[in-house]
Design a protein that fits this description.
Length: 266
């Protein structure tokens, strides 16, 4: 654009823009608080001002969702293609519980600001409670069925894995609730926050044992003789869920890299 004198005007450049750009470049290789285990932070980080719901599909979460759909569809289709009995509720409730448990992880993972973490924790708590209610209902069904029919308890790998998972999940839920909502039980808020990483680690372990429990369920007599859920379908589904969930783990949240100075929140 020319001035009144006919001499082209030079564009006005804010010197701070160059400084900010160089500063951003210099931070490019530094660890970020919101950086996932695999990939750069943008692949699985909630954007400022966005709702929680996109957290369920961003990054590799879509792969996890595909695995969940395959797993739940395999179980529910096999159940409803056979005559329904009292025991039919057990696989239906437990697969639904696994679904909501995984969603509770996916919705919280990408949060990184204090506000996002508070909102994500509430959503995580609600979904986890729903999952726990469904799983406990599934446990009541199987225990009553065994008691009513005088069936031995905890003889199959599925039963042993299931009981182990239930115990871990109950402990996990109790610790997670008290850590966040009643931290004084641990002596102080800081002390409660110091064990958050163990809550997260145990959550991923429990998810894995739950998937292993479903795989083991395909080897029970009831499945072999009645439902005929294919083990290969459940194994593929479990792998997809883990591929979708594990790469989004934030290294800083597990204590695998130091927390950057000035970062707040849990």
């Amino acid at each position: 654009m020319a001035s009144a004198t006919g001499i082209p005007e030079q564009p006005v450049v804010d010197p701070r823009e160059g400084e900010e750009s160089r500063a951003e470049e210099s931070r490019g290789d530094e660890p970020r608080e919101d950086e996932p285990l695999l990939g750069r932070p943008g692949a699985a980080t909630q954007q400022d001002g966005r709702s929680l719901f996109p957290n369920l599909i961003i990054g590799t979460a879509g792969i996890a969702q595909a695995g969940l759909i395959l797993l739940v569809a395999s179980v529910w289709a096999s159940v409803f293609l056979n005559p329904l009995i009292f025991f039919s509720a057990h696989p239906l409730l437990n697969s639904a519980g696994l679904l909501f448990l995984t969603e509770s992880i996916l919705i919280l993972q990408p949060t990184h600001t204090p506000t996002q973490k508070r909102q994500g924790t509430i959503a995580h708590f609600i979904a986890n409670n729903l999952a726990l209610d469904l799983l406990i209902a599934g446990l009541v069904i199987i225990e009553y069925n065994k008691w009513a029919n005088a069936i031995p308890h905890f003889e199959s790998p599925h039963a042993v894995l299931g009981l182990t998972t239930y115990i871990l999940l109950l402990i996990q839920s109790a610790v997670g609730f008290t850590q966040y909502f009643t931290p004084r039980l641990y002596g102080s808020v800081d002390r409660a926050k110091s064990i958050y990483k163990w809550h997260r680690i145990s959550g991923y372990i429990i998810l894995t044992t739950m998937l292993a429990t479903v795989i083991a369920a395909t080897q029970t007599d009831y499945n072999k003789n009645i439902l005929d859920i294919k083990i290969w379908a459940i194994i593929i589904a479990a792998i997809l869920v883990l591929i979708g969930v594990l790469p989004r783990i934030k290294k800083q949240k597990l204590g695998l890299q130091p927390k950057p100075s000035g970062v707040e929140g849990q």
